[in-house]
Structures are given as C-alpha cells and as structure tokens.
Design a protein that fits this description.
Helix content: 55-70%
Order of helices and strands: HHHHHHHHH
Strand content: under 5%
Radius of gyration: 17 Å
Oligomer: single chain
Number of helices: 9
Length: about 240
Amino acid sequence: MSLGNALSHLTMLPFPSKKGIPLLHSVHYFPLIGAAMGSLAVLFFLWMRHMFPEPVACLLTVAALELLSGGGPLRGVAEWAQGRRTIPGHGFDSGFTLNLRGFVFPVLLVGLKMASLVMMPPEWRTHAVFVLPVIGHSAQTLAFVLSAFRFENPAARDLVTSRRCVRAGFWSATLMLLLFLFPWRAAVPALLLFAAIAVWGLRLLNMRSNGLTLQTVSFQSEFSEAAVMVLLVGMSRIV
C-alpha cells in the first residue's frame, strides 16, 4: 500500500491509501512518480503543440502538471506564505482562507515556470518538460529524507523507513542526473543550484518553521522547479 499512499499524496489520481502506514514508508517512490509524471507531461506537450502554438502548449503543460498534482503543492505554498504549519503526512487543515500574500506566491512561481519554458530554446523544451516534475519530486523526497529526525511519529525512525530513505536519496540523486539532457555547461550549474536549495534552502525553511512542515515541503518543491527553470533559461543564452 506504500505505492498507493505515495500516489494519493502526490497526485489527484484516486489511488487507495492506508492511513496506518507512515508517509515515510512511501518516500522511495516519490522520485519515480516524478519521472512517470514527466513522461506523461512530454506526451501531453507533444500532443498540445500539434494543436496550438508552442508557447500555448508550454503554458498548458505546466498547468496540466499542477492539475495532476491535485493542486497540493500550490496550496502548500499559499499556506506557507500565510504562516500556516501542518505536520507532513497528516494532510492540510480545514478552514484555510486565501489572502493576497497567499495568492501572489504560488502565482509567481507558476508564472516563472511557464515563462521559462516559453523562453527556453525550442530544442530544450521537451527535456525541460520531462525534468520539471523530477526536480519537484526529488526536492520533496530530500525534504523528507534530510528532515526525518523531526517527525514526531516513532514509526518514522524504524529500520524499514531508514532503508527506504536511503533508497529514496539514491533515486533522487540518480534521476537528477537527467539534467545532463541539457548541455553540461547548463546542467552543472542547474544541479549545483538544486543541491543548494535541497540542502541549505531546506535548512533555512526548517529553521523558519521550527521543523519540517507540509508547507515547507510544498514550497521546496515549487521553488526548486521555478529556480532551476529560470537558471536554465539564463544558461541557454550563454552556452
């Protein structure tokens, strides 16, 4: 059921989940689900660009990825901006009311991803669509793995979880090498930027929130995607 829990948490797809299993027991699936979503996004992008101008296909693809994720990361960013805190694995609290600050942050990050994809060289776009959810899901994975000691649930520290966290870290590191689909002069800075966000950015966010929260994980995911896409656009003007 750990795969069902991962799919239920990361996507809008109606997969069964079992609440008695800690979310950390599913964390090793997160990067693989990102790769699967990237594959679907490429097919969707290729389909859309046969029907619409390519910039429109770029916008629709980013929107489709957000829709496939169920809007959870965007809500998490909005709640993060408004200072709300929820323990990961427990779901969002009810009674959330969006304000201007909570609206601006997710719109800005999605807008940066859309604009970056449009501004990217045409020959880079398919690669960017593929790696976009890989970046976000790897960021989420590392947020859980590197902050596992902050969880209150004793089950989060068992041997099974430790092994799956190691496996999750391995899959994240391996799949992030997909950035080398781009020229190495762009891939290396992008990989270093991702590593900085995944490690130092996470540390700062955890300090700000006094521990890992669902909102921190969401912001880490969306910000990593946007930042790497913006960097790739910049590097495309140099390489």
